Amino acid sequence: MSLPQGADGEQAPPAGTVVRVDVASGELLVPVGCVVVSSGGDELVLEPAGRGSATARPGGAVVVRWTAARGLHEVPGVLTAVGQRWRVRPTGPAGLVQRRRYARAAVQAPVAVVPVGGEDRRVVGGWLVDLGEGGVRAHLELDEGLDAGTPVQVHVTLEDEPLALTGRVLRTTDPRGLRAIGTATARLVEVVVAFEEPVDHGASIRRSVLREQARARRSARAGGAR
């Protein structure tokens, strides 16, 4: 038996994917960050990595959510086992909840991320990977990841304009073999931040993204003409 496939061909998240599991607790949904260990057979095996895991009970209803290239996906399920590893039996097919609403472009520039609203006030430096009106992906110099949901400010300079962008950490991953770009350390963590709406400095981000996209198209055309 295999996991049910969505109407548009959506599959379950592959091993290594960082997901958010919304665990039913009374009338509340408690979000817990997890990493997919395996998604073969008829269940998902997850390793909880976030706060709130104590609320999970076998038989409890959950919704597993993750972001892929097409946008936000989710699959409903029920917990069949909890502990160091959770087992989730899907009760329906995976589905695409929200397609990407914003254009994105590869942007390489220094970035600083600062947690706000808590005791953690460290300034974390790194390098942008891509940028859009809806959020940013960056490789940061971190000894440990930032928890999903952490409010942060992203400081970056675009076209000589310094910007402070408010958002929340969507996910962090620790991809092996990351090449350090613009930094001397090889210990990098990939962090995705979703901006709050309305997006601060949206017009500036949009201009920068459109220019980067146009530059990439010109480069592609020039390469094809050789």
Automatic annotation (TrEMBL):
Gene3D superfamilies: predicted glycosyltransferase like domains. One of its GO terms (molecular function) is cyclic-di-GMP binding. InterPro entries: PilZ_domain. It comes from Vallicoccus soli. Pfam families: PilZ. Residues 98-176 form the PilZ domain. This is PilZ domain-containing protein.
